[in-house]
Amino acid sequence: MTDVHAGRIVVIGVGNEYRHDDGVAAAVLAELSAGGLAADRLALCDGEPTRLMELWEGADLAVVVDAVRTGPGEPGRIHLLAADSDHVLADPPADEGRAGGTHSLGLGHGVALAAVLDRLPRELRIVAVEGADFSVGEGLSRAVAEAVPRAAAEVRRAVDEHRPEAGRGACAF
Amino acid sequence: MTHRTERLLTVGALARVEGEGALHVSVRDGEVEDVRLRIYEPPRYFEALLRGRRYTEPPDLTSRICGICPVAYQMSACRAVEDACGVAVDGQLGKLRRLLYCGEWIESHTLHIYLLHAPDFLNLPDVLALARTDAALLQRGLRLKKAGNEIVEVLGGRAIHPVNVRVGGFHRLPTRDELDHLATVLVQARVDVEETLGWVAGFEFPSLTIRHEFLALTEPDRYAIESGTPTGAHVGPFDVAEFEQHVREHQVPHSTALHATLDGRPHLTGPLARWNLSGERLPAEVRALATEAGLGPRCDNPFRSILVRAVEVLWAVTEAQRIIEQYEPPSGPALPVPPRAGTGYGATEAPRGLLYHRYDVDEDGLVRHAVIVPPTAQNQTAIETDLRAFIQTRLHLDDAELTRQCERAIRTYDPCISCAAHFLTLAVDRG
Fold first, then answer.
1. Nearest by Cα to B246 from B87, B354, B388, B386
2. DSSP E strand stretches across B219-274
3. How many Å lie between the alpha carbon of A76 and the closest alpha carbon of chain B?
4. Residue A64 belongs to a domain with what CATH number?
5. How many Cβ atoms from other residues are within 10 Å of residue B281's Cβ?
6. DSSP structure string for B120-166
7. What confidence score (pLDDT) does residue B351 get?
């Protein structure tokens, strides 16, 4: 049962720690969990759209941490994106599902689908970290590992802006 | 360096990268000369990762191979390790495992039916278009899928990457209140799945008849899922310890995934195989609704596999209801499983088909060797064979349309990209 209710804050990490830099979200969540965070739930997820919707449904704020592949890119660079009911993103590119596979439709599809079904959180922020190596295996590349504290700080900032009085809680995933 | 924007615009670049795949087609003089499905396969990596690990670790480690069917990996791993250690988990603990597995079948099949496969039959580009066309219909699918998620969350500890499964049983047993909640959820799920079956039964299915060998687990008196005997349609039943003698894996140059044959023939595992080998063991009420939906006693058209999946969701919902209704708490959450040197074999029915694990465990309880044969890897040769016939009659199409139709055809097999493949770059060499 998804423990998310109105007024709550959820932080969702999307990725796979067995695909090198795709595991950046897991590393960020581990850092947030160790340091404490005033969120109601931390969850690691594979990015499948319906799971995303279930995790953030009814939340006041959802912060999603994900890896991003760009080319040419700058591994470790962080992108901050936001979407809310007044600023819903355009449709995801037609080939997003192709890039993501027949199962994973991708975060873009998840956000777009949630918008159509009225299942977006009131506020959605995305912390995307550019990765370099998405092959099978454990461990982040150096630039991405160095970005983990900065990405965690961005999550904290988003949560603090939303709930400045809360301070650091003891939320674990 | 940090960039801040106000809108989410570049969503296509957000990575979901658990595998890569491509299809290469060669055509010479109007004949399809070669069809090669190129697949990357993470299980090979995990087989190496498991060496030297404690015998208790394979269920949790292998569950990370696939975000869609982690329970299948946990179940096959548990069975293999327990087999090596000479322990059989049955009784109420076995039934709880079956309940957990039903949850995964419900969520995995429903995901495929509604989000991935149905748009093909409705001439819609994707699920987003389906949501815009009929949001209420998709909400029904999401509600049904969530019922499966809730079962996995209660039994598995969490819906994603479940952590409550262990060799010998579970870390924690569900409470009666938790099961009562699931029973309530399943009442609506039963309504939703019957409507789903009726909806899917109205689709138009392209013609395609396949002649492969089928492979599925069977049991004498019930639909096999978390246990059973590997059974080939022609080969017949054989002991799971003989699996690697019958299902031979071999390297192919174009793929890092191993291909497989059953006694030398391409074979198919998954919903069609289960239906054809085990369908008569479904409860009468499920079989009656399947017949009403147009599913005969045998199904050789992969495009109709969506119908079989809907029937299997119906079965999983009713089976989950039955298990919850009859549940009596066992004396403890797990049986003791002390390590023992030996080799263990385990096979269960993942949503996509038979998933086999073998572990060699030494006297210190360390895994010395691991073999994992996922269903999608087994199906590759059969898929390529079917695609060859499928493409041959569609060579007049331009590359874009041919790609679309090939993707549709491949989706009917519900290949697990996390386990074996991502899609799809099509290269047609027309000579």
1. B354
2. 229-232, 236-237, 247-252, 255-262, 267-269
3. 8
4. 3.40.50.1450
5. 15
6. HHTT-SSHHHHHHH-HHHHHHHHHHHHHHHHHHHHHHSSSSS---EE
7. 95
Number of structural domains found in chain A: 1
Interface test with A, best of B14, B127, B139 (most A CBs within 10 A): B14
User: A136 vs chain B: nearest CA distance in angstroms?
Assistant: 7
CA of A137: which chain B residue's CA is closest? B45
Query: Is residue B34 a part of any domain in this protein?
Result: no
Q: How far apart are CA B216 and CA B226, in angstroms?
A: 12
Among residues A49, A110, A99, which one has the least CA distance to residue B13? Answer: A99
Among B29-38, B126-135, B337-346, B374-383, the least confident range: B29-38
Asked if the C-beta of B5 comes within 8 angstroms of chain A's C-beta atoms, the answer is yes
Q: Has residue A122 been placed in a domain? A: yes
Contacts of A62 in chain B (CB under 8 A): none
Query: Per residue of chain A (173 residues), what is the pLDDT tens digit?
Result: 334 444 699 999 998 888 899 899 999 999 999 988 888 999 988 888 888 999 998 899 999 999 987 767 899 999 998 875 444 554 444 444 433 333 345 677 788 899 999 999 999 999 999 999 888 889 999 999 999 999 999 999 999 998 765 555 556 56
CA distance B393 to B372: 36
What is the radius of gyration, based on Cα positions, of chain B?
21
Residues of A in contact with B181 (CB under 8 A): 1
Q: Assess if residue B395 is contained within a domain.
A: no
Whether residue A111 and residue B8 make contact (CB cut-off 8 A), yes or no, is: yes
Please tell me if residue B422 touches chain A, with a CB cutoff of 8 Å: yes
A75 in a structural domain: yes
In a domain, A105, yes or no: yes
* Residue B394 within any structural domain of the chain: no
Amino acid at B355: L
Pairwise CA distance, residues B384 & B308, whole Å: 22
Domain that holds residue A87: 9-161
Q: What is the average pLDDT across B167-176? A: 98
User: A35 to chain B nearest CA, in Å?
Assistant: 22
The answer to whether residue A168 sits within a structural domain is: no
Q: Considering the domain boundaries, does residue B348 fall inside one?
A: yes
Q: Which domain holds residue B256?
A: 46-377
Give the domain CATH number at B356. 1.10.645.10
Question: pLDDT for B224-240, tens place per residue?
Answer: 999 999 999 999 999 99
Instruction: Give strand ranges (E) for B211-341.
Output: 213-218, 229-232, 236-237, 247-252, 255-262, 267-269
CA distances B403 to B398, B400, B428, Å, are 9, 5, 9
Q: Which residue has better confidence, B127 or A89?
A: B127
Residue B203 — φ and ψ, nearest 5°? -70, 155
Tokens 């993470």 belong to which residue? B42
Interchain CB distance below 8 Å, A101 and B19: yes
Count of domains in chain B? 1
